[in-house]
Amino acid sequence: MPTPLPKADVPTAARQYNSRLGIVLFAIYLVLYAGFVFINAFDAEQMETIVVAGLNLAIVYGFGLIIAAIVMALLYGVMCRNEPIDGTPVAGSPASDADNHDDSEGASR
């Protein structure tokens, strides 16, 4: 008999992991973006500094933020854990380990 899926309001281990991963990546991006905003707010002349190939810091930092967002989204997609769709536990999960025990009543008892 297949194991029923957990209720939507009960967080599974995969959901908890994915949530923590999302929050960590969000916090990293928030620090990067806050640095951009603070430099603009408190030392705007610094953004005019030529950094690479005639581009100023504002352009390089802005493109860096866009690239960082794309990389973090790809990283999140790769690192996320999947939940079982049909109710079968994922190999190595506590639910699959519990199902490996022989609880059936048979001739061996």
Automatic annotation (TrEMBL):
It holds the Pfam family DUF485. The chain crosses the membrane at residues 21-42, 54-76. Residues 98-109 have a biased composition (Basic and acidic residues). InterPro entries: DUF485 (IPR007436). Residues 89-109 are annotated as: Disordered. It comes from the Bacteria. This is Inner membrane protein YjcH. It comes from Novipirellula caenicola. The lineage of its organism: Bacteria, Pseudomonadati, Planctomycetota, Planctomycetia, Pirellulales.
